[in-house]
Write a structure and sequence with these properties.
D-aminoacylase_insert_dom_sf, 7-stranded mixed β-sheet, Amidohydrolase family protein, Metal_Hydrolase
């Protein structure tokens, strides 16, 4: 046996399968792994670098199954268009918490595909979701080529977003797709899946995806099924109608033949608290019947999204320009106010289920003084109605306002985390500036520190499996998510007694404690909790 490029010696191997940890050394050569019995390594001819992992856990690199990191590395050297330190922190936050593969294109929103003539108009809309000029791409191949020109520390895979696909063919309009348009959408989806995209995602609370009926999604999910790739959905409602929305997702999966994955499963808003006691048994029963259905979850009781998503769907019909015009019209604002108070059939209505006092501004680039404050507080200070304050902020920021929604309860989060078919995803939204949700920097160490070590909700091996092997299997990441001979050399070395999230809503990008070493593509990208500058990451074609 020849020598290794890297030898991780003396650690407790937790291999990503869920099996009990065991002492073992792990060698890396040419980007692949070899598992060695303790004491076997000296007979192999040594190693270029040796990492002492005594007292540490050695696990596969974490797979973040739910991110919105589609464009952050395309924004410039720091992820903010300038090498300013804070932007660099935004880009590196994921890998510092041990994530070696990110899956983007979630919630129906991504940077591809679209008809060529639609790409210029979609760039402005992309700014709202991703911040900055990240570009739009005709297909997965063009998206991957753009990322290949920008060195990255970890790997990236991408789903095809239904909302982006719809906007790329129809535009941001509230009407059903015509038969010819649906055929074009299916063809664009088929091409990107053939090129290596990981599956189809929907965000059925977000426009323009919310304008689609069930039949449209079934037709598209059937394309994913032919490729053996999953249908991944942000349900049409995660609040008072969450059970009905889950049934729609089940119908789409059954009719299309696609495996079903429910994104960031939650029962949010005061009218849905506790309903995981019904949704989780429903999923478990489906699995017992043989249905391929899974979900992911982040370990926080607050979510994050765009402020515009707090408005009724018709407000966004026609895109940003149309929204801005409506927000400037007092009569239209009154109509929006009534819609929030009374509800709209088929609309989730986050504010109506919670209140403006649970919605705080995360990022408003031109109005940083609003960041960290609730809309209700801003309105009280101004002696104004909260809807008018939200409308004024959206107009002034050209729609680029991100919010934090404090909408869940801990009991529901714990139930989903404990579900044996639930994996871990940050739902991180790494937009430059402001105060992003701390989940982008803290999700994985938070699970290991709080829910494994402190609360005992999960066994260590179980938690690692949710972060690695289970996730890799769901999304077709062959040779990743497990430590075995010949697997890709993506590793994390962490201290089980110290690992913890340090990021907060006030300081959301603080790196975690206890993540000592991260290896991606066979190279050390984090050592002693700091980036090394190595950039072995790639876009994965699946």
């Amino acid at each position: 046996m020849t020598g290794f490029d890297l030898l991780v010696r003396g650690g407790l191997l937790v291999d990503g399968t869920g099996r009990p940890g065991r002492p073992a050394d792990v060698g890396v050569a040419a980007g692949r792994l070899t598992v060695l019995a303790p004491g076997e390594a000296p007979r192999t001819g040594g190693a270029t670098e040796v990492i002492d992992a005594r007292g540490r856990v050695v696990s596969p690199g974490f797979v973040d199954v739910h991110t919105h990191s589609d464009g952050v590395t395309l924004l410039g050297p720091s992820g903010g268009g300038a090498d300013d330190g804070s932007g660099r922190a935004l880009v590196r936050a994921s890998v510092l918490q041990g994530v070696t593969t990110e899956i983007c294109g979630n919630c129906g929103s991504g940077l591809f595909p679209a008809l060529p003539e639609r790409l210029p108009a979609m760039r402005a809309e992309a700014r709202i979701t991703f911040g900055g000029d990240v570009g739009m791409y005709a297909d997965f191949a063009a998206f991957a080529a753009a990322h290949a020109r920008v060195p990255r520390a970890n790997h990236l895979a991408s789903l095809v977003g239904h909302g982006t696909l719809r906007a790329g063919v129809l535009g941001p309009v509230d009407r059903p797709a015509r038969p010819a348009e649906l055929r074009t959408m299916c063809a664009l989806l088929d091409a990107s899946l053939s090129q290596g995209a990981a599956g189809l995602s929907t965000g059925l609370i977000y426009t323009p995806g919310s304008y689609a009926g069930t039949d449209e999604v079934v037709a598209l999910a059937a394309v994913a099924a032919r490729h053996g790739k999953p249908y991944v959905t942000h349900l049409r409602d995660e609040m008072s109608r969450v059970e009905e929305a889950l049934e729609e997702a089940i119908e789409i999966s059954r009719r299309s033949g696609a495996a079903l994955h429910v994104s960031h499963h939650k029962t949010a808003g005061r009218y849905a608290w506790g309903r995981t006691e019904r949704t989780l048994p429903r999923i478990a029963a489906l699995r017992a019947e043989g249905m391929d259905v899974t979900c992911d979850v982040y370990p926080y009781t607050a979510g994050s999204t765009a402020l515009a998503a707090m408005l009724p769907p018709w407000a966004n019909d026609g895109g940003l320009a149309a929204l801005t015009a409506r927000l400037g019209d007092p009569a239209e604002r009154d109509r929006m106010r009534r819609a929030i108070a009374e509800g709209v059939p088929g609309w989730e209505n986050t504010v109506g289920n919670g209140g403006w006092d649970r919605i705080s501004v995360a990022c408003a680039p031109r109005h940083p003084h609003t960041e960290g404050r609730t809309i209700a507080d801003l309105a009280a200070s101004a002696g104004a109605d909260p809807l008018d304050v939200a409308a004024g902020l959206l107009v002034a920021e050209a729609g680029e306002v991100t919010i934090i929604s404090h909408s869940m309860v801990e009991e529901d989060v714990r139930r989903v985390l404990a579900a044996p078919y639930a994996m871990i995803g940050s739902d991180g939204v790494p937009k430059p500036g402001g105060r992003p949700h701390p989940r982008w920097a803290g999700t994985f160490p938070r699970v290991l520190g709080r829910y494994v070590r402190e609360l005992g909700l999960l066994r260590l091996e179980e938690a690692v499996h949710k972060m690695t092997g289970m996730a890799a299997a769901r999304f077709g990441l062959a040779g990743r998510g497990v430590i075995r001979d010949g697997a890709h050399a993506d590793l994390v070395v962490f201290d089980p007694a110290a690992v913890a999230d340090l990021a907060t809503f006030t300081e959301p990008l603080l790196p975690p404690a206890g993540i000592d070493v991260v290896v991606a593509g066979g190279r050390v990208v984090v050592r002693d909790g700091e980036e090394t500058g190595a950039r072995p990451g790639s876009v994965l074609a699946l």
